[in-house]
Amino acid sequence: MRLATRRAFLGGAAASAVALAAQGAGAGPAFALEQRNGVDFLRGPYNLAFFYRHNLAYRIGAGMHFFHSKQHDLLQLTRFEDHAAVDVRFDREAQEWLLNPPATEPEMPYYSSYVDRAMHTLFRTIDWTHMHHEQTYDVMAFREIPWAEKKAWTDRAVKYYLTMQTEGIPRSPAPMELTMRRAGIMMKPYFNYFRNFYPLDQSLFYVAHWWHPAVYEAQMISGNQDQEAAIKGVEDVMHREVIPSRPGRMVLSREIMPRYSRMSPESANIFDNLHMLHGIAYSILAYKGWSVEEKRAEMHRVIQAMGYQPGDEAYARKFGEPHPAYDPRTYPNWVRSPQGAMGMIMMDMLMEMLPMMYPGGLSKAEKSAVLQQMMKNGRLGIEPGEIPGSLHEAMTRIAPGMRMMPGATEPGETPRMMTETMEANWRRKAERMLDIAPIDMGVEPSLGAARVASR
Question: Domain range spanning residue 51?
Answer without folding.
Answer: 44-438
